[in-house]
């Protein structure tokens, strides 16, 4: 089992920045992939960014060049630095983690990000 706790969401004006954090606890030694999804009202949950334990990253096209995912394995923490925020980035952001050789995702409780125009 893995428990994930997110923080760092809030209200920001368009063009501003926020940094989300997600701390993992439990069976963290088995974690390979960590990342962030988001879900806006009335829309499906979508992948924002992912990072492996080796540091490989992948981003949704909509956030490339604006968001940066990073990871501190010693602290079992993944971060999402969000710059040049747009109103369309408004959503609940969910942290997830996945063990190596598994297709099961553990999820955090979500943190609200609201970008005003």
Low-confidence stretches: none
Q: Which structural category fits the helices and strands?
A: mainly beta
> Helical segment tally?
0
Q: How helical, in percent, are the residues? A: under 10%
Share of β-strand residues: over 45%
Order of helices and strands: EEEEEEEEEEE
Please give the number of β-strands.
Answer: 11
Any idea what the radius of gyration is?
13 Å
Span of the ends, CA to CA: 40 Å
The pLDDT mean sits at: 95
**Which outline best applies?**
globular
Major beta-sheet overview? 7 strands, mixed
SSE blueprint and pairings:
Layout: E1 2-7, E2 10-13, E3 18-26, E4 31-39, E5 46-51, E6 57-59, E7 67-72, E8 77-82, E9 91-99, E10 105-107, E11 111-116
Parallel strand pairs: 2-11
Antiparallel strand pairs: 1-3, 3-8, 4-5, 4-9, 5-6, 7-8, 9-10, 9-11
Report on the architecture of this protein:
The strands form 2 sheets. Strands 2, 4, 5, 6, 9, 10 and 11 form a 7-stranded mixed sheet that branches. The protein has a 4-stranded antiparallel sheet with strand order 1-3-8-7, with no helix packed on it. The radius of gyration is 13 Å and the shape is globular. The mean pLDDT is 95. The chain contains no helices and 11 strands. With 117 residues, the protein is mainly beta.
Search tags:
117 residues; mainly beta; four-stranded antiparallel beta sheet; globular
Summarize the structure.
It contains no helices and eleven strands. The chain has 117 residues and is mostly beta strands. Strands 2, 4, 5, 6, 9, 10 and 11 form a seven-stranded mixed β-sheet that branches. The protein has a four-stranded antiparallel β-sheet with strand order 1-3-8-7, with no helix packed on it.
